[in-house]
Amino acid sequence: MLCCFFVLYLLLTFIYTPSVAYVADSHRASSQAAYRYAIIVDAGSSGSRLFVYCIPLIESTTRSLPSVTLCTDDKGEPLTKKVNPGLSSFSSDPSSSGVYISSLVSIAAKHIPKKYHSVTPIYILATAGMRLLSESQQSDIWNAVREAIKNDFDFKFEESWMQTVSGYYEALYGWITVNYLLDNFVDPPKPSVGMLDMGGASMQIAYEVPSEAQVLEDHIMRFTIGGKNTYNVYVMTFLGYGTHAAKSRYKLFLLHNAMEYSPYSSILKSRFRPSTGYTKPPKLPELGVQLLYTTSGKEKFILTDPCLQSGLEDVLTSQDRVFSRTLSTGGTNSPIITFIGAGNLTQCLAYQKFLLQKHKPCRIEPCSMNGVHQPPVDFEGTQFYAMSEYWYTSSDLGTAPADVYSFDSFYNSTENMCKKPWIDALFEYRTQNVDPFNIVNKQAVCFKASWIMNVLHTGFGFSQSYSNVHPIDSLSGIEVQWSLGALVYYMQLPEFQALLSQEPVDAQIGFSDSQKVAVIILFLAFGCPTAVGYCVYRKRRRQQFSPGGCLGGSFCPPIFTRSKCFWRSPKVVTSGVTTGGCKNNPRAAGNNYHYSMIPSPSAVLNFRTSNSLPSFQIIQANDNKCSGHGTI
């Protein structure tokens, strides 16, 4: 039965040999060879986005860069995926951040051919949400992410490719994205455009300035494209000016006003206890404040909010208080702070202006917000492309189809949205089958649209008649995200170019599952009966063994006896008896050839218990006789 076991062992080894994804489509396989891949994970404050980019290896000589595109899946859909919440939300449970990131990266691993994994770089870049955490909190999260990527995947990964990106680089990456997709980096280059980006926690602005312009050196980033053209780009970031962070600061600002100017000032100050650094805010006109008590006797302060539609309510959360380092509470005994919508755009714009910090001293004129220097903008010759919240809010207002931002149109749409009672707006959303998640987002549209107008015109100083701001979601069929600009930036580095020149490891080893099934069927149909028949034959032959160890009147079996094999050789006749062979078993000289055994050391077949092939151990033969049986 040994032969049956051995054949079965080889079959099982074949079945369980790992094999990579099998590409049946030869056209697809040939097209893959012309591309390389790159993975970017944008770990934002409210969620993380996966982007899988395809980089062609052969390009037109008129471009300084290859035409990078988003890869697509088998259905033709872009390989991008967003998950919530943001990576920074794992600050209290950093070990879970590894599983969180792996769930995203596994999508890329599934679609990128296995043979390209070792030459596919992966960059995990976090933004403002992580910037708000302490260094130790960031380090704990990054350690968990690093272990997950190294243990779960075979992608090319370096320590420096996993980082919390500064706001300046985020601004530069956004500027690169827009100009890259507009083909402004061709040779010779076309005039560049400016970039505006607004996320959940921060916002950025970037535009090219003349080399002779008098600009603070730490506000300029120089970018060389294709080793030829260098750009001087003014970049600035404003942490806390993204829509979510600005909304939290706004709610705290209303609370500060109630603490200073409401009839309940002393009660509120005793509950929130202002600390060192607290400054008295300017008084807001017509801020209504009420004090109620819950059924359990807990204090509930109600503040009117002109940036909420009437009928909407909001509350001050612990996440909102992250943006205030001058207030402390009594823990579970702190009162409830509730905001009731009033839906007044004029008042909303006036309330928000203080958050721009235009009153801060300007060290070097001119300044935009928070005392930050901003070099003059050539509004006549510069266009700006605005992405992220500029587009999302325009879409929520219904003004997104327009190619150019118009202050009058945007203002009128915002005013209509703000004054519409929430119950009426909710009915319209449900009639339009808007999903619940987007309905929740639309509750903040009045605030976000007002904030965008304040930032553009009061903050950055864009004239209300300026008509060269373009809210965008995509260009050239590609979603506009700073992640693409980050990839283009990394593509200029020598290590990335070296990675592109590496040949992928051919992982097309083994067989596909369908091939293995076919082999199993063939074995069951032909191999197994043949093996069984041979085993039966051997069993019957063993019954003919003589006591001396040789087969009666026949031969000694090779391998299993100490005579290893038979050799066909010319007949040598001595006194009528052939030489060689087993004694007492002379073979008659009936033809020109006979079989004589060549004595050799016997072989003992040792089976290992592990999942590996058996080995043959050669042992020294005691003699050259045919007696005795080999050991199995």
CATH class of the largest domain: Alpha Beta
Q: Count the strands?
A: 24
Proportion of helical residues: 25-40%
SSE class: alpha+beta
Kindly identify the CATH topology of the largest domain: Nucleotidyltransferase, domain 5
* Radius of gyration from CA coordinates: 39 Å
Principal-axis shape: globular
pLDDT average, as an integer?
A: 81
How many structural domains?
Answer: 2
Q: Beta fraction of the residues?
A: 15-25%
Distance between the termini: 11 Å
* CATH superfamily placement of the largest domain: ATPase, nucleotide binding domain
What is the level-2 CATH architecture name of the largest domain? 2-Layer Sandwich
Uncertain parts = 13-30, 545-632
| Tally of DSSP helical segments | 17
Family: Belongs to the GDA1/CD39 NTPase family.
Transmembrane segments: 517-537
Binding site for ATP: 200-204
Active site: 170 (proton acceptor)
Structural commentary:
The chain is built from 17 helices and 24 strands. The model is unreliable at 13-30 and 545-632 (pLDDT under 50). By secondary structure, it is of the alpha+beta class. Strands 1, 2, 3, 4, 5 and 6 form a six-stranded mixed beta sheet that branches. It has a six-stranded mixed beta sheet with strand order 9-10-8-7-15-16. It is globular and about 110 Å long. Helix content is 33%, strand content 19%. The chain has two domains: 34-239 and 475-501, Nucleotidyltransferase, domain 5, CATH 3.30.420; 240-472, Nucleotidyltransferase, domain 5.
